[in-house]
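Here is an idea for our session: we take a single protein and study its fold together. To get us started, please write out a protein record for me. Start from the sequence, derive the backbone structure tokens from it, and show both lines together. Go ahead whenever you are ready, and we will take it from there:
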Amino acid sequence: MNKNIFLLAILLTLSWLMYGQTGHLAGRATDASSSLPMSNVNVIIQELEQGSYTNDKGEYYITNLPVGSYTLRFQRIGYKPAVQTDVIIRSSRTTTQNMELHRQMIEIAGVTSKIEYFSATEEEKTSLINFSHEEIRRAPGAAGDVSRIMLSLPSVAKVNDQSNNLIVRGGNPMENAFIIDNIEVPNINHFPHQGSSGGPIGILNVDFIEDVTLSTGGFSAQYGDKLSSIMQIDFRDANRREFNGQMDFNWAGIGGILEGPLSKKCSAMLAVKRSYLQYVIDTFDTGTSVAPTYGDAQAKISYEFNPMQKLSFLGIFADDHNAPDQQNAVDNAMSHFGNQDLYQGTAGVNWKAVWNPKLHSNTSLAYTYNDYDEDFYETFTGNYAIKNRTLEQEFKMRNSNHAILSDNLGLDFGGELKHLYHSYDNWLAETTNATGDTIPSLAMYKDVQATKAAAYISCDYSPLQSISFTAGLRADYFSYNHQTDIAPRLACKWQLSGCTSLNASWGMYYQSIPLLLLAQNSANENLLNPRAIHYILGMEHLLTPNTRLVIEAYQKDYARFPMDPSQPGLFILDDDFFNNYEDLKDTGRALSRGVELLVQKKLAENIYGLASATWFHSAYCGLDGTWRDRNYDNQFIVSFEGGYKPSSGWEMSLRWIYAGGVPYTPLDVEKSMQNHYGVLDAAQINSQRYPDYHSLNLRLDRRLFFKKTNLVLYASVWNAYGQKNIAEYYWNDETQKIEEVYQWTFLPIVGVEWEF
């Protein structure tokens, strides 16, 4: 009897918890060109066939919706209908979904204008892809890391599981920019690679992210000082209607979020996270036994004076610590061991203003720092090798404006200003370079200052309803080498029908060399800034309203890269450039070309997916006049990522990638024995290739809705069939042999998100 009463009590408790599962939906609709709020936009929840209209502030609010996953449709006469999938309504919470609507420009007889499932801009006409918050959160093999979801794209090379470096169209990790709410953040990863943009683990909390747009080439004059890609990340505003919280327990750490209104016009959210990765590494064979620790904090405060004026504060901070001992280094095939303490942060404000129906702007002021405190020793000798005490500081301003001159003519203009202050207290012991030649010790005890300034103007013109052009000009000045670079850009889009368009772009792009390299020798002050010229031709076709096919061919001609005469066959920017280079030359050349195919299906009828294939070749010309494959040249990549969502509570997904092996230089066994660490064979630079890479990632999500709270449980397996992909061949001085270092093997991951 007592047992029956107990079971009945449990059932009644669960029934009470599950009863009344409703949430709310709110947001704002704006004109994509003018940023003006739009009234009388019909917001329809397609699955429920109900909705609402926006008011004179462009806002809508729909209450007491059953929990679940929905598709929203925004429509108004004179504008293209726009659709947002994966909108999750949660118990006792308000979900915010904003939308920008584009004016109806295409009216071709017999063709119905396409519904906007896919984000677009007037300025960027080629090589653009967008992901929503939910697409990032659930991506298998990404674990909420913004950079790792991009590994499914045909434009991004596949090199090593332990790093989320973005290698875009044959480029280099230093060639990428990240812009969050109009503020440039140099690196969005823990354990950042100095002077570059990569790292092993992402910093950003996926629940802060509204959406992400990656431009992999041909980007407009608004962006500069990068050669390969621009990633724009929009953080959402905090909930202005109620206080919410969330606790997260996943592979990257344990953390939480608090958000809510501070006043009628102001809202704030804060997220913190701390790692426990060392316990995962101790439990599973991840390819390493080193246990780093790290943490991060992010905050955003938004103050909306009115729908036309908004001020927001952004703060992103992280600290990273690693201290492998000599035995760790031996066990994990590391050339060095020691202590590593890293700190980084960006804080800034952005002012978004709509001045009138013809003009709006974004202006940001920000401060960024990166603090490196590192000591490293050679693994097999124990000799002190590297001391790095670097503090990098940047003070920066960024302004962008958009003016509507007429119905078919728009103008973008603005500029950037940065002041760099770097302090170096660094030392490198006398050692040998990659090919075994002796290089002297390096001592850097100096403070370096430099200024970067840029201005741009870009015009978007549509002479016909089916044809549009974007022409721009950008000027960048770098005080350290007294260089001014002028970069013209041109792009064209020809809308053949409501479903098919041809797109082309051409442009020059310049990027300054990291101060870490320039400051090592006074002779480097005269090095020219590297340049890339992009040529892109593509076609986009809607197979269905929610499925698109994109085919693009591209070529990138690189010039003016720094090269080391003492290592004429190496491309130093693809390797560790923190070395003692006495007499660099800026005559390095490189070339990348390829053809990409992408099929992307947004969530509709319970299925979504992204399939891609690419063939590309990336090479460089050494100072010896020989062309060689670059380090990241996979040559071909095939990938598939997709999922099935049978209900609002369950979701299954997978990602499979197959990529050609990247080049490597074989080790010179005799010299490696003499030097007690791996020395490359200078006669065979990048002449061989690692075995092809392939891996399968699986993920299962379970979402539970209670009366006042929500719970998300997920389980994922990386490299599900345990493929032993080789990361590198390594000289083990203890065994006097060349050994294999593997990438991640079978790695299970579980996570819990509790929303309250």
About this structure: The mean pLDDT is 89. The chain has two domains: 2-101, 128-755. The chain has seven helices and 44 strands. The domain at 128-755 is CATH 2.40.170.20 (Maltoporin; Chain A).
